[in-house]
Write a structure and sequence with these properties.
529 residues; alpha+beta; Beta-Lactamase; 4 domains; 5-stranded antiparallel sheet
Length: 529
């Protein structure tokens, strides 16, 4: 700016010289000519010389100085334009640089507005959908205030308002850069939000069908697709429809052939217009399908692959969970069969023998027969309680009906009534758990109370449920029974303890067992959200 000012000052001095310098020359020539007039032999020569030197010379000097003045003014104008262009370029560079340093859309809008304010010296307001940001001195009347320059941002669907001195053409150029930056930030925020929603869906839903429906709904919304579908391979290599939005290419199971076989290995466009993205890399588990604008879907393919990997993870986790559940069901059936064989079956056999003995003694020794019948009644009542307790333990529990905390209270109190001991339930806070974590803790409660009824001979049990920070929960089940030595306990007799530990560890938690002969037992299970 100093250089332009210097050139402009020189131009003004030249313009001043253009006026008074020719006059000085005329004055000098007149004085000179009158001084040498006496020495000139011809009087006409005096007037010719005076006209030549006094008029032509100053005129030439005037033209020369006028040309120099115009050139200096043009140079000063060019320098001012260059400085202005540099200032504008610096403003654009500052705005873009600040925006790229921001992490989310809110921070991008704040950074852009403050950068424009610093570089242009005015107040700024930005609006993009539900997001708004205004600098501190922006008029309270908003973008309708007098003297504002407002520019629409068509790509991002936003609006930029500037209060201050600025050329609208330059503001429109700057708004174009801001528009691109906001569009990119909005897309980045949308991608991150989609990933967050997908991750939340993975945590919140244990049912594979419902989980895939929720994931597909978010992916279709993110991609702006017209519809979508998820097909999974079964054990026979057949593709089956598990979830869809809109219309599905086929609702029947089928063997993958042709383009469908290729879709299990790499992204392809099927003949029906669907984009197929494989679920799984080396070992495919299925196909994610989307239908919509081909160019848009092709441009978002990299992120679609990332979302497909999340869906693959959900499917494999769910399948592993189902296999674990099937194994647990099989082991539970084996345990129940063993308990029936070792408990109820033997008790029934014992009672049958005692009844035969009582029948033989009924006439010979009525008193002895009465004693045997009393023993049968005692064993029969105990077995009835055992059967009722087993039936109660096997009943399906609807956690969604009462909620996790209330289900814990109800189950503990009802089980205690069936088993014949007292129970105290304490809840601290409101645990924030996924359905899978709630189910894992509830199964621990069931197994722990079942062990108390079968082995502890306890009179009182305390159940404590504590909400952990920031998210998670701890379940404690303590009894005043006979206790045992966990290190010396035979594996066969404590299968339920191992099953509890596996359930908790599968959710990323831990299980601790504290017990000693004659001192009761305390089981602590902790799971994250």
């Amino acid at each position: 700016m100093a250089l332009g000012t210097g050139v402009g000052g020189l131009a003004r001095r030249v313009r001043s010289a253009r006026v008074f310098l020719p006059l000085l020359i005329v004055l000098f020539v007149v004085l000179f000519q009158f001084g040498i007039r006496a020495s000139l032999p011809d009087p006409h020569a005096f007037w010719l010389q005076l006209a030549f030197y006094g008029l032509l010379g100053p005129f030439i000097v005037y033209l020369t100085l006028d040309w120099i003045s115009d050139e200096l003014e043009a140079r000063a104008e060019a320098e001012r334009a260059l400085l202005e262009a540099n200032r504008r370029l610096s403003a654009v560079r500052t705005v873009v640089h600040r925006a790229l340093e921001a992490e989310n859309l809110d921070e991008v809008m704040r950074a852009v507005a403050e950068a424009i304010r610093e570089t242009l010296g005015g107040e700024v307001a930005l609006k993009l959908g539900e997001y708004r940001y205004s600098t501190a001195g922006f008029p309270s009347a908003g973008c309708r205030a007098e003297g504002l320059v407002a520019v629409e941002l068509p790509r991002s669907g936003g609006r930029l308002c500037f209060f201050g001195q600025v050329e609208k053409g330059f503001l429109e150029v700057l708004a174009g850069e801001v528009d691109s930056v906001l569009e990119a930030a909005e897309a980045r925020t949308r991608d991150l939000l989609t990933l967050f929603e997908v991750d939340e869906a993975l945590r919140a839903e244990a049912n594979l069908g419902k989980l895939l429906e929720r994931l597909l709904e978010r992916i279709v919304a993110w991609a702006g697709a017209e519809g979508g579908a998820v097909y999974l391979l079964d054990e026979g290599g057949v593709l089956k429809l598990w979830a869809f939005r809109g219309e599905a290419p086929s609702r029947r199971a089928f063997l993958p052939e042709g383009a469908w076989r290729d879709a299990l290995k790499k992204p392809v466009f099927l003949g029906t217009g669907w984009l197929a993205v494989p679920l799984g890399d080396k070992t495919p588990v299925g196909v994610l399908l989307l239908i919509g604008e081909h160019e848009r879907l092709r441009g978002e393919l990299a992120f679609l692959k990332l979302l497909a990997s999340q869906v693959t993870l959900a499917v494999r986790n769910a399948q592993a969970y189902l296999r674990a559940e099937e194994l647990a069901i099989h082991e539970e059936r084996t345990r129940i069969a063993r308990e029936i064989h070792d408990g109820i079956a033997q008790a029934l056999a014992f009672m049958a023998l005692k009844l035969d003995l009582a029948a033989r003694l009924l006439r010979k020794d009525p008193d002895r027969a009465e004693e045997e019948l009393a023993r049968v009644r005692k064993v029969l009542r105990a077995q009835i309680r055992e059967v009722r307790r087993s039936i109660f333990a096997l009943r399906p529990i609807d956690l969604e009906r009462y909620g996790f905390v209330e289900s814990v209270r109800r189950y503990a109190q009802a089980f205690a009534e069936q088993a014949g001991f007292r129970v105290a339930v304490a809840v601290e806070g409101e645990p924030a758990l996924t359905q899978a974590s709630e189910l894992a803790l509830f199964r621990v409660l069931q197994e722990a109370l079942n062990n108390v009824a079968k082995h502890a001979r306890a009179r009182r049990v305390e159940v404590r449920l504590v909400a952990e920070n920031p998210r998670g929960a701890r379940l404690e089940v303590a009894d005043d029974g006979v206790g045992f030595d966990p290190r010396a306990a035979p594996r066969e007799g404590h299968f339920g303890l191992a099953q509890m530990r596996e359930r908790v560890q599968a959710r990323g938690g831990r299980l601790a067992i504290e017990s000693a002969p004659g001192r009761g037992t305390r089981i602590v299970a902790e799971v994250p959200a």
